[in-house]
Amino acid sequence: MTACNIVSAGYASYTKCMNGVIEIPLSKTKITLYFIGALMFVLLGIVFSYEPSTFISFRYPSPTLIRLAGIASLMFFGVCLLFITRKLVDSKIGLRISDAGIWVNSNNFEIGLIEWDDITGFRTVKISYTKLIIVKTRKPAKYIDRTTNVLAKRTMRSNHRTLGSPLTIMARSLSIDSDELEQLLLQQLEKRRATTGGKNP
Question: Which segments cross the bilayer (predicted)?
C-alpha cells in the first residue's frame, strides 16, 4: 500500500502519496454554501413569479417585469441547483494528479483524464465572479470528440471558441482555491518537463 500524507496549506487540503499521486477532494462545505445560495434564489424566483404585486416599488413599478425576473431566476438557479446537488452527493475525488495526467471531476460535467502529453500550459481567467483555469492543449478535438454528453460537448466547443481551449478546471467546488491550484498544476507540469529535457511530457 502506498503511503500518503494530508497536505494543508492556505486554503488547500489534499492528499499527496509517495508514488506522486495527488488527490484533491470536493469541498462539501463550499458546495453546501452554493446549494443554499441557489436554493434561496429559486425560492425568491417562485415568490416573484406568483406574487409580483407584493414587490412593486417606485424602482420596479411593473408586475410583469417582476414576474419575468422571477421566472428567469427560477430557470437559471433551478438548473444550477441540479448541478450543485449532483456534486453534493458525488463520492468521487474532485481532482487527481498522477503520471498519467490530470483527472478532473470538479466541473459541472466530468472531464475525465487529461494526459500530460496533450497539455502545453495553464492560465487563469475570471468570468463574472468565477475563476477558471484554462488547460492549454495541443489536441482540443480529441477531448471534444470523446465527450458523449451533448450539453458538455456544446460547452467545450464554446470554451474552445471563446477561451482558446475546450478544457477548463473550476476550483470553486474543490478543497483548494484557484490560485493555489494553478500553482500546483504549473509545478507538476514543470516537474514532468524536467524529466523530459525541458520538452512537454
Answer: 31-50, 65-84
